[in-house]
Amino acid sequence: MTALPSAVQAPPSAPEILDRCRELVRPALTEAVGRLHPWVAEMAAYSFGWCEVGGAPAAAPGGKGVRQALAVLGARAAGADGRAGVPAAVAVELVHAFSLLHDDIMDGDATRRRRPAVWKAYGTGPAVLAGDALFALAVETLAAEPGGPGAVRLLSTALADLVRGQADDLLFAARPFGGPERVTPEEYRAMAEHKTGALLGCAAALGATLGGAPEPVVTALDRAGRHLGVAFQLVDDVLGIWGDPAVTGKPTGGDLRERKKTFPVLAALDSPAARHLPALLDRPGPTEEAAELIERAGGRRAALAEARMHTAAARSLLTEVPPPAAEEMLRLLDFLVARDL
Question: Which of 22, 52, 146, 243 could in theory staple to 56 by disulfide, Cβ–Cβ 3.0 to 4.6 A?
């Protein structure tokens, strides 16, 4: 009797990959947070969506877990079990949470994932303290691992870049939309790579480092993650102007009302068709006219083209990464850049 062919299992989708990696990392992340001072641990748990103010359990929406997944897949790219990347995943998730706590304070953002931001729920001082504790815990987590000094150096480099990007982003707010002092697209690219890309690249590189990957693979993953970060930020910029509030959780045109120097705006300002745009952006009130002018001047098209360019660069770098980790990273890349557009 001829044997029936076995069913071919479909490769996991990007959401399945994210879910699988979150489930792998969650016990270690929970254990790490539990080592903090109880009050600080509560604020950290609240920031992750695990509890309400006061500590009652909750199932609030958390982040996608992209950095966790990149760390786990980085370890697999080294030929190791994904569990080798768990300490890296915990460390980068703690640093990401720390950066969000402080970002919300600096930007005055009162909500995060449809809930009061930590500084609104607990106060500014406690939120700063919680962020500092998460940062210290991230360093402690990596330092305890074999090869910890090298891993901590990687994390420190990424943190220095993140701070540089955040500093540039804050300074951009005070610069005009027109004239010689305006923010250029080149300055924006550097800011986005530092602020968003550095930690994504670090996540994958850290996982690979703990998994024992050779230096060329670690470098390729770091650079790919940085390109992914810029592409991710560009898509965020498009959604910040034209995204559906029901999907993004943010009001339509919110970035325009806040006068943010996002890439669609900067690209549009290079077009003669947008000569009236600076005046529109400086005027309080509805943003629909400014959004339409940015689109007519090619700002949206330029931002998406730029995102595709960085996506292609990341894909090219991932050819240096062994399968199947590279294939799963590519699925994550496409999922994150194509979201809600």
Answer: 52
- Could you tell me which of 243, 232, 240 has the C-alpha nearest to residue 306? 232
Contacts of 135 (CB under 8 A, 6+ apart): 94, 95, 98, 159
From the list 168, 41, 142, the residue with the least C-alpha distance to 97 is 41
Sign of CA dihedral 192, 196, 201, 206: positive
pLDDT for the residue numbered 250: 72
pLDDT at 237: 95
The first and second tokens of residue 220, run together, are 């390729």
pLDDT at residue 35, as a whole number: 97
Q: In angstroms, rounded to a whole number, what is the distance separating the alpha carbons of residues 205 and 158?
A: 11
Identify the helix (H) or strand (E) that includes residue 44: helix 38-47
Considering only CA atoms, which of 262, 60, 297, 86 is closest in space to residue 254?
262
Contact 221, 205 (CB under 8 A): yes
Comparing CA positions, the residue from 339, 92, 51 lying closest to residue 201 is 92
C-alpha span between 312 and 299 (Å, rounded): 20
Query: Who contacts 166 (Cβ-Cβ below 8 Å, separation ≥6)?
Result: 99, 103, 106, 194, 195
For residue 285, what are the CA distances in angstroms to 146, 213, 280, 282?
56, 53, 9, 10
Cα separation, 159 vs 287, whole angstroms = 35
Q: Is the peptide bond before 149 cis (omega within 30 degrees of 0)?
A: no
For residues 221 and 74, is the Cβ–Cβ distance under 8 A? Answer: yes
pLDDT for res 2: 53
Structure tokens at 129: 């303290």
Contact 72, 207 (CB under 8 A): yes
CA distance 240 to 263: 11
Burial group, residue 76, by CB count within 10 angstroms (0-12, 13-18, 19+): buried
Residues (pLDDT < 50) of the chain are: 1
